[in-house]
Structures are given as C-alpha cells and as structure tokens.
Amino acid sequence: MTDAVTLAADILKEHRKSIDRLDAILVYTLGERFKHTQAVGRLKAEHDLPPSDPAREETQIARLTELADQADLDPEFAKKFLNFIIQEVIQHHKQHQS
Fold first, then answer.
1. Chain centre distance of CA 49
2. Which residues are within 8 A (CB) of 86 and not within 5 positions of it... i.e. 6 or more apart?
3. Which pTM does this prediction carry?
4. Strand, coil or helix: what is 58?
5. N or C: which end of the chain has fewer CB within 10 A?
6. Which of 72, 49, 75, 48 lies closest to 64 in space, CA to CA?
7. What are the b/e assignments for 24-34, b being 16+ CB within 10 Å?
8. 37, 42, 44, 45: CA torsion to nearest 10
9. Consecutive 10-residue runs of the chain (98 residues): their mean pLDDT?
C-alpha cells in the first residue's frame, strides 16, 4: 500500500469508530426516550387520555425541524424520523389502553 492509501485507511477507521460510538449513543438515547414515553402511555391509560396529542406532535415536529436545521441535518429527514418515532409511541400508548 502506498502512504496515501494507508493514511486514507487510518482516517476511514477513525471515522468508523466515531460512527460506531454515535450509533451506540443513538440506541441508548432512544431506549431512554422510550422508557419515558412508556410511562406517559401508562399515565394516559390510567386517566383515560387519548393515545395521541396532535398539538404536541406538531409542536415537537416544528421544534426538531429547527434543531435539525441548526445541526446541519436535513430537516425533511428529521421530520420523517420523528414521525416514525411518534407513530411507534402512539402504538405503544394504544397497547397500554387495551
């Protein structure tokens, strides 16, 4: 291997190590988030509240879209990701009500 290829391989390895650490952070963060949304679902079920809150969802999407823009993350991707999470949470809340 040439020096340039070796250097590129080393740089690639470091980027991948960072990506792996960030993936772990994402997974643990989502796990923590879902612990709280599960508690919210149980609370909603106990008090006969609806599983979804469209006003809250709209506020969250706007807030996270702005954060995504500040973080140089595609806001459309952030919206899709948050909508996916919201749908999962609503399903969990519905399960608590059954």
1. 24
2. 52, 57, 60
3. 0.79
4. helix
5. C
6. 75
7. eeeeeeeeeee
8. 140
9. 91 98 97 95 93 93 94 95 90 83
